[in-house]
Amino acid sequence: MKTRGFEIVSKYKDKGINLPRRQTIASAGYDIEAAEDIVIPSIWRLNFVRIFRLIRNGHQLYERDYEMSDDILKPILVPTGIKVYMPEDEVLILANRSSNTFKKNLALPNGIGVIDADYYNNEKNEGELFVQVLNYGVRPLKIRKGDRIAQGIFIKYLKTDDDLPIARERVSGFGSTNGKES
Ligand SMILES: O=c1ccn([C@H]2C[C@H](O)[C@@H](COP(=O)(O)OP(=O)(O)OP(=O)(O)O)O2)c(=O)[nH]1
Ligand SMILES: [Mg+2]
Q1: Closest CA relative to residue 17, chosen from 171, 145, 152
Q2: Alpha-carbon distance values, 134 to 4, 6, 80, 104 (Å)
Q3: What is the pTM of this model?
Q4: Which of 84, 96, 115, 181 to mutate to test the pocket of ligand 1 (most atoms within 8 A of CB)?
Q5: Is the ipTM of this complex over 0.90?
Q6: Which ligand is in closest contact with the Cα of 91?
Q7: pLDDT tens readout for residues 48-86
Q8: What distance in angstroms lies between residue 129's CA and the mean position of ligand 1's atoms?
Q9: 82 bridge partner residues
Q10: Which domains are seen in the chain, by residue range?
Q11: Which helix H or strand E contains 54, and what residues bound it?
């Protein structure tokens, strides 16, 4: 019987993806690997480029220039090539590895990632997990395919007494319930 587990998404079948694994007897987290080589640019450099662009365009660096700009510094989404299934009352918490901040200047800007049970096999991206990352170091950071970039922890979540039943199905992630994806 299938209860909870990880699977490889179709796009990455036969691409040598390893399913997440725990590393020691009592490790809570299933370590999740990057599915591709990817370079994470430094946020300092990106911000420098933005400021340089503002100055070059003759803008003064007033607060309103930032407010007017829709040039949001978006985190990089690292593909994992995997999806996760679990009972409806569970959630996979995607957490950073402490070594990422300690050794690599790699942060998960959303703090933790919340992977909902109904994200599995969604029509848009089949439920592929992505890890949002920011490199707060000064150099670009190379992530290689197979590097363990985050860990997934399964937990049960609770509902309030007056929780409203809802029939809406999840079609994707990253703002899909906002009406439009951002
Ligand atoms: O680090 C993350 C965080 C989320 N997700 C996927 C799985 C999750 O089920 C979905 C929605 O995440 P969340 O509810 O945290 O984001 P949202 O901004 O509320 O998006 P939505 O409106 O789609 O719920 O996006 C990831 O792949 N990685
Ligand atoms: Mg949501």
Answers
A1: 145
A2: 29, 25, 16, 11
A3: 0.90
A4: 115
A5: yes
A6: 1
A7: 877 777 777 776 666 555 554 555 678 999 999 999 999
A8: 9
A9: 8
A10: 5-38+75-175 (2.70.40.10)
A11: helix 43-56
